Amino acid sequence: MSENIKKLLDRMKRKMLDEAESVYWTPTKPGEYVWGILEEVVEDVFQTQSGEEIAIKVAKLRDPATGKVAAVRIMHKSLQSLWDMYNPKPGDLVLIKLVKNVYDNTEEDEEPRLRYRVFGMSIRRKESIENIIPVASLIKKRHEEHIQEAEQTQTMEKHEEEEEKEEEIIEEEEETGESEEEMHEDAGVDPNEAKRLAQYTITMLRDFFDKVTVDDMIDFAGTLGLTPSKKLIDKALEYLKKIKNVKVEDDVVRLSS
């Protein structure tokens, strides 16, 4: 296995370990809260202490700052009432807070028994945050298209759509025409190979790299089965410079914020 593949697998493992920290939100102290973009609401079965199984809603909230997903069980009466009142939709920004715990009166030498919990809730509709949190638009698009596949599949589909758009941008730039001098300088470079390398570089930036250097692009070319050359790298960098959300400085490629 090549060092480049090992490096990619290591980055993927670290990313998956980070994603695996996403768990059910289980608050215990008043003041604790969870917030995030509502991705979806699913049905689940919860078993009570008495052994009874009840159907509940589970809301998946993605933190807009960290990207981690928290699953929130909508099962306490106060939270159920707030959820029904606000009726949040996929793409809305939702914040849920444990306001207080109410206990039964007990003897001094007994452990207090939790009677019920009081929750608070606030939301911002997706229309009001789309310009602030781009992921809201993505979730809205997914919801409208009824995409129900696993998160990895959704990510791959998103990459394919964006790569198609980037390819269209590159082709539009090519259609504007090159001078005879530019065409002469590009002799010996297959434009399709340079385009593949540029698009692969963008994919690596999205999933694994904060920045990509020329040396990285040489490795990428080998992974794609291309013959690395200065002309191939230079042509791929030219394509990347034409893409709006890509920044190329001193032969270092980054995604612009």
Which helices and strands appear, and what pairs or packs with what?
Elements: H1 3-19, E1 33-47, E2 53-62, E3 69-74, H2 77-86, E4 93-103, E5 114-124, H3 126-129, H4 135-144, H5 151-175, H6 180-185, H7 191-207, H8 214-223, H9 230-241, E6 246-249, E7 252-255
Antiparallel strand pairs: 1-2, 1-4, 2-3, 4-5, 6-7
Structure description:
The model is unreliable at 140-157 and 176-186 (pLDDT under 50). Strands 3-2-1-4-5 form a 5-stranded antiparallel β-sheet. The protein is 43% helix and 24% strand. With 257 residues, it is α+β, with helices and mostly antiparallel strands. It has helices at residues 3-19, 77-86, 126-129, 135-144, 151-175, 180-185, 191-207, 214-223, 230-241; strands spanning 33-47, 53-62, 69-74, 93-103, 114-124, 246-249, 252-255.
In CATH, the architecture of the largest domain is Beta Barrel
CATH class of the largest domain: Mainly Beta
The overall strand count is 7
The CATH topology of the largest domain comes to OB fold (Dihydrolipoamide Acetyltransferase, E2P)
How many independent structural domains? Answer: 2
N to C succession of SSEs: HEEEHEEHHHHHHHEE
Strand content: 15-25%
Number of distinct helices: 9
Widest sheet: strand order? 3-2-1-4-5
Q: How would you sum up the major sheet? A: 5 strands, antiparallel
What is the average per-residue confidence, as pLDDT, rounded to a whole number?
A: 77
Gross morphology is elongated
Helix content: 40-55%
- Structural class of the secondary structure composition? alpha+beta
